[in-house]
Amino acid sequence: IGEDVKPFTPGKAKEIVMSLQQPAVFCNMVGDWPALHWNAKYLSAVLDGKTIQFRLGLKTVDLVPQFETSCSYVKATLEEFLAWSCGHPSCLSGPFSCYEYSKYWAYADYKYIARIFEDKPEIFQDIRWSDFGFPGRSGKESTLWIGSEGANTPCHLDSYGCNLVLQVQGRKRWHLFPPADTSFLYPTRIPYEESSIFSKVNIANPDLKRFPKFRNTTAHVVTLSPGQVLLVPRHWWHYVESIDPITVSINSWIELDADHEARVEEAITRMLVCAIKSAENPSDGDLWLNPTEVEATSHEINLQYLNKAVSAYFERQKASVPEQARPSS
């Protein structure tokens, strides 16, 4: 095959993305994308002094995951971030001055490209998801991640869609677990984030006393290098860590039909979290349940109840409305 011939047509690539139930790495699909030049130095020049928020975490690995709620945050320019990561003396003052590079990592994660570059919309065209069969999808529907060595995202699954991730600079190690491993990963909605279900286990240093079932998981470990695109299928758990001094990646979430049901579950979870947060004193759980209620049931069982109730409701509607009077939707 010639250098410029991609291994898959957009149609074939889309078919793989929409149907594959295993993670996969696409090679030689983005060689002509201008976004491959988006290293941190280039982005620093484009952003020209604009500040972005960085999340800072400790490089020491604890038994509990380093959730975003336990991180520090600073606003800084990419120039300041690069100087700090090189150990430049200019960092003795400035936003990173309290954080020693040898002890901390920094991560500008989950940044909507449409928002960062709203004054430079022409840059969106540097990202061409049309090569994967999604015409019209560009940087506008993508997210940017810039990290230093050790930067990581706690293990979680995304409630919606599947995920395409382009690695631009440096390497990232992905630890992926199939949906079937969910119960072994001790899922939790605390901390709450819409569309993210976290694992209580720190994948980098699992506490097997507290989480013995974690031994039953099957990790698929992938080191993603620049120019490669990773497909993370629906509901695959992932823990991601930067293993080079500077990493840059770009991702886009692809909507799936199954997202409609997930939206109902997410809306209810949000409602519950807000109800609990605004409650008087949630620590005294026994006063919450009337004696006629025997016990609190798991989130999973409650959602099964809900799904059955919703299904039964729709079935009833169907039965009671004559065929011709039913709206097409």
UniProtKB/TrEMBL annotation:
Question: Where on the tree of life does the source sit, at the highest rank?
Answer: Eukaryota
Q: Which Gene3D superfamilies match?
A: Cupin
PROSITE patterns the UniProt entry points to: JMJC (PS51184)
Q: Which UniProt keywords apply?
A: Cytoplasm
Q: State its location(s).
A: Cytoplasm
Signal sequence extent: none
Predominantly, its location class is: cytoplasm
Coiled coil ranges (UniProt) are none
| Residue span(s) of domain JmjC | 105-269
Function, as annotated, reads: May play a role in cellular stress response.
Q: What is this protein called?
A: HSPB1-associated protein 1
